[in-house]
Backbone:
């Protein structure tokens, strides 16, 4: 079961990166090409955000919308005053989200790439009025299969604006663009130096 989960995450990541519309900065196709050039398999994005953490307020014509993180669905969710977001919403937005609070590099079925890279979403902020403003903070790890160890850790942030949040499956959305923006920045600025790419 774990192996098929990693295959599904990898396929989802490939599909998202290959088919999403062009974004500010590198396109998804360029991001995918960069991962391939660096011999990196992307294993997904975990989340480490406390349950019911306030993610921000967006002012709309119908009044304010308050967002909060939901770690696990419970009966209390039905009476929540906030719009609760979860890992499932990230998946719907096209983000290759995985369970847990850190990516898994050793258990499961992986391809033949030398490196495996994954991230942990540690911060998410949603604000704006006419357009969404989304800021993401991610911690990244790069695993080397030859030494069986994490050889690089880093962090990045990205802020994107747009008309669509993405929690209903819209293709071009600010959640996905934020995560890709954060990934692109570490691939270009730091990971390439570590892998010798």
Residues:
């Amino acid at each position: 079961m774990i192996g098929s989960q990693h295959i599904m995450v990898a396929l989802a990541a490939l599909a998202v990166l290959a088919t999403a519309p062009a974004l500010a900065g590198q396109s998804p196709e360029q991001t995918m090409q960069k991962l391939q050039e660096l011999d990196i398999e992307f294993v997904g994005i975990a989340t480490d955000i406390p349950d019911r953490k306030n993610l921000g307020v967006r002012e709309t014509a119908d009044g304010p919308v308050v967002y909060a993180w939901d770690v696990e669905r419970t009966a209390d969710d039905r009476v929540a005053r906030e719009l609760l977001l979860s890992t499932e919403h990230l998946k719907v937005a096209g983000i290759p989200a995985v369970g847990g609070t850190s990516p898994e590099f050793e258990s499961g079925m992986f391809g033949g790439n030398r490196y495996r890279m994954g991230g942990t979403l540690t911060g998410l902020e949603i604000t704006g009025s006419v357009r969404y403003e989304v800021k993401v903070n991610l911690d990244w790890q790069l695993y080397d299969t030859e030494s069986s160890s994490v050889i690089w850790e880093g962090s990045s942030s990205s802020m994107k604006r747009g008309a669509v949040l993405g929690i209903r499956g819209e293709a071009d959305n600010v959640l996905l663009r934020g995560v890709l923006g954060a990934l692109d920045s570490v691939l270009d600025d730091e990971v390439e130096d570590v892998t010798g790419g």
